[in-house]
Structures are given as structure tokens and as C-alpha cells.
Amino acid sequence: MTRLLTVLMIMAGLSVPAAAQDAAANEGAAATEAAPDAAPEEDEEEEEEEEAGGEAAATYDAQGKFDYGFSGIMARDNRTDLAPLTLASGSPVAGDEYTLKSGGFYRIAINADGSQELALSGGDFFRSIWINEIVINDIEIRPMGVHSIEFDNAGTAVISFVAITPGRYTLSIPGSSGESQQAVFNIQ
């Protein structure tokens, strides 16, 4: 008896959306009958589509606006390689300021010569981008968030990311105050 009741309740629940659709269709038919010359061509096209393919499926095609190709924004041909950052004792971190576009896919290498234990810190910058991956010695890291990157020895880290939030951000060597000891990123 319980199973029978359960089946009946499920069937009643499933029929409610169908009844609501039927009611909406009846209201639409009544509105069409009330205004018979209100775009009859469109109704005929919709009926033909419904007959041909069952239900007319709604598609939201943004191809013209975002035509990035098969791999989307992360495709290699959409990626821009930026000039590398340098971590070396007494050397400037970057040659000039970087100008990035919000929504652009970028890759930047950070090279450390091992002359001193150095780090780059910039929580605001890392929160304004989406990091795809950080590659260190052919090891790919896909972090949820980063605050700083520190090098104890010589090496290279490559960060690929998408710039998100417009603004002016810096990556700097902690404890230093010189302008040459930071990299400035302007996201437009």
C-alpha cells in the first residue's frame, strides 16, 4: 500500500509541471486568437521547428562576441608572453611597467640567479588575476591562491594567468623600498 501511495505521489508531482506548461500554452493560444495578425509568420516558423525536431530548443549563442576558438581563452594563440622578471641581488626586478587587458591570457617567467634568497610578494596582484598554473622545474601547480613566491636557489617559475580586476598592482621584494625592486602591473 505504501509503495502504491509513493508511486501515485510521484506521478502527481511529475504532472504538475506538465499542467503548468499546458496552461501557459493555452494562455499563449488565447493571446494569439485575440490578436490574430500579431506576427503570424513567426508562429508558423516555430510550429515547423517543433514538428521537425520535437521541441524547439533555446540556444544562447555568444559566438560573435567571444570567438576564442576550440580551447577558448586559454588557447596558446590567445596567450601573450610578458618580459621576464629577474630576482638578483642589486638588479631591477622589471625593466618597465606592464600594461595588461582585463580578460587577457598572459604568461610570465620569474628568473632567480641564486645570488640571494629573494621573494616576490603581492597579495593584491594575485587576487586581481586568475592563476591557471605555476610551473617550476616541469612541475605544474594549479593553486587556489598565492601571496608570494620565494626562491632559495637559482631557478625559474613560470606563471600563466588571466588578468581580471582593473587597477594598478605591484609585485615587490619584501622589505625593500626602491622602485627598481618592484614590478608594476596596470590592468585595464
TrEMBL record:
| Alphabetically ordered keywords of this record | Signal
- Biased-composition ranges for Acidic residues? 39-53
Q: Where is this region: Disordered?
A: 25-58
Signal peptide: which range, if any?
A: 1-20
Q: Where is the composition biased (Low complexity)?
A: 25-38
Instruction: From the Swiss-Prot or TrEMBL record, give the protein name.
Output: Uncharacterized protein
Q: Which organism is it from?
A: Paracoccus aerius
